[in-house]
Amino acid sequence: MQEPVFSYVPGESFLHKLDPRTKLAAVMLLGILAFRAESFLEIGTLFTFFIALASFSRLPLKVFFRAVRPMALFIIFIFLAQFFFTEGQELASFWVLRPTLEGLYNGIRISARFILLLLFAALMTASTDPSAITCGIERMLRPLPLRWLGVNSYELATMMNLSIAFLPLLFDRVERTKAAQASRGMYFGKNPLRSVPALTIPLIRGVVRDAEELSLAMESRGYQGTCRTSIHELLMRKRDRLSLLVMGLFAIIMLVL
């Protein structure tokens, strides 16, 4: 069975040994830099930095292809929308579609941003145990006055971790639903719009059922949202401080470009 997207891949690389708080802070910073990237030089620098991080992680390339593939249609749609409907210097004319040079630039730039976000997120989730991510988020949120909002860091970290955990399960359920409908004789290529209800309705029912089963399992095990313990002892080591320093220097370089 194919592994779901954004799943953890055990390893002993440099990235696997980093504190989850270091990787969370790095991904947030890289996400901000990706959204601020305007020129092709900045985007190319971010892709080069990702390649360097991927080499340190020793993760197989299929992990990153698997993260981008489910969003490929969405990325293509964004590119085409920018390419054909952005005003500027026209490259050609196809009925109501008028591709422009500015649309080509914007489409490549925005698509590259989304791809970078997916790649950096896949790099973090593949090199970090989900329970360590939960512990890292809780430690980072603990100093915030979340009690004024009626929640605490433990509950918020659990919700974030469940969201991360449900994402690969959602893609896996989509594939299983498609296979089940295909076995019943449905052909998705003939009329894609007609097949949407056949996918969405069983998918929503399955997701709701999974959420109910998870909530019952947590209640039966006496889940409490306060003062939870963790098997992970988080400790910022020399490699973590060095990594944060490198990230800070890289961010300064990106802001200067």
Helix content: 55-70%
Please state the CA-atom Rg, rounded to the nearest Å.
21 Å
Number of domains as seen in the coordinates? 2
Q: Structural class, please?
A: mainly alpha
Number of helices: 9
- Strand percentage lies at under 5%
Give the total of beta strands.
0
Helix and strand element order: HHHHHHHHH
Largest sheet: none
The end-to-end span amounts to 44 Å
The rough form would be described as: globular
Membrane topology: Multi-pass membrane protein
Pfam families: CbiQ (PF02361)
Protein name: Transmembrane component BioN of energizing module of biotin ECF transporter
Keywords: Membrane, Transmembrane, Transmembrane helix
Overview in brief:
The chain crosses the membrane at residues 24-57, 63-85, 114-133, 240-256. With 257 residues, this protein is an all-alpha fold.
List the helices and strands and how they pair.
Blueprint: H1 20-36, H2 40-57, H3 61-68, H4 72-85, H5 101-127, H6 130-141, H7 153-183, H8 192-220, H9 238-256
